[in-house]
Design a protein that fits this description.
The complex is a heterodimer. By secondary structure, chain A is mainly β. Helices cover 0% and strands 50% of the residues of chain A. Chain A has no helices and eleven strands. In chain A, the strands form two sheets. In chain A, strands 2, 4, 5, 6, 9, 10 and 11 form a seven-stranded mixed β-sheet that branches. In chain A, strands 1-3-8-7 form a four-stranded antiparallel β-sheet, with no helix packed on it. In chain A, a hairpin with a 6-residue loop joins β4 and β5. The N and C termini of chain A lie far apart (40 Å). Chain B is built from no helices and 13 strands. In chain B, strands 2, 6, 7, 8, 11, 12 and 13 form a seven-stranded mixed β-sheet that branches. A four-stranded antiparallel β-sheet of chain B has the order 1-3-10-9, with no helix packed on it. Chain B is globular, with a radius of gyration of 13 Å. Chains A and B meet through β5 and β10 of A and β6, β7 and β12 of B.
Chain lengths: 117, 114
Amino acid sequence: QVQLVQSGAEVKKPGSSVKVSCKASGGTFSSYAISWVRQAPGQGLEWMGGIIPIFGTANYAQKFQGRVTITTDESTSTAYMELSSLRSEDTAVYYCARDQGVVPADWGQGTLVTVSS
Amino acid sequence: DIVMTQSPDSLAVSLGERATINCKSSQSVLYSSNNKNYLAWYQQKPGQPPKLLIYWASTRESGVPDRFSGSGSGTDFTLTISSLQAEDVAVYYCQQYYSTPSFTFGPGTKVDIK
């Protein structure tokens, strides 16, 4: 089974950017989609975008187009999600998740990003 | 965009009793070419990431107890917990992946013990 380990919690100022990493171990990294999903405090799950490492092209939710960039580094089996122009509403736990071929099945532990002045 | 709704928002069920959660999509998630419903269910406990329970509307993920079952087709789906256990207290989300590579989640249903 794939294990996904995410980078640690971040505190950011409004207007700045954050980059969260997600390192995979066990299993094949390149062939399965990696998605990023966020969850604001007390709220539901929101898909932000995803990428299949072997293809390299990311797809983004319309809501985040222009503000989010998802990339991968196959040499280290790591995926990244960078969110720019942060505002207080971006305070959330950010998860990476890997498909089992159909839908996200393996999830990272989550990274809390707090946006505060 | 496909919008997912769930009902009820929350429910409380006695231990050993049945819990039923409904999910509705704003358009059909049944793909006619393979006759598969692109609908999944997740369980999320406090402080944990979501856990995949069911995909293709009714296929249990490996290791998921058989008290969890999914049914439905087209736009209307149901997750049933046949005999609620204490460890099933969680929020349950449906998710459509018909519009893959993008997907959307329902708002969630909280399940508690009565």
